[in-house]
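Task: sequence design from structure.
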């Protein structure tokens, strides 16, 4: 894998990794205007709480929610890259 990718995988723990994956899953599952994005159980008619009888609002398709997801992803990836760069720099100084 090489030292850069190996170090990135070893250091991918804590809040940066959690926020990164939250952003990815939120973008894939929650964000949008489709039936699934508004109601995960839109296909069933038994419980009115989980279909179109209960309006979900416009949170899942708002620009502010998209901006929150993108900024969380960018910040967490930046922290992971910073940790990787610092680790490579200090590791090179240690073994040079």
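Answer:
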């Amino acid at each position: 894998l090489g030292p850069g990718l190996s170090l990135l995988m070893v250091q991918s723990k804590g809040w940066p990794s959690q926020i990164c994956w939250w952003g990815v899953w939120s973008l894939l599952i929650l964000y949008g205007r489709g039936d699934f994005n508004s109601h995960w159980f839109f296909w069933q008619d038994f419980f009115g709480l989980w279909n179109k009888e209960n309006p979900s609002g416009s949170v899942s398709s708002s620009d502010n929610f998209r901006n929150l997801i993108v900024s969380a992803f960018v910040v967490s990836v930046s922290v992971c890259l910073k940790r990787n760069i610092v680790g490579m720099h200090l590791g090179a100084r240690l073994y040079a």
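The helical segments are 2-10, 15-30, 35-38, 63-95.
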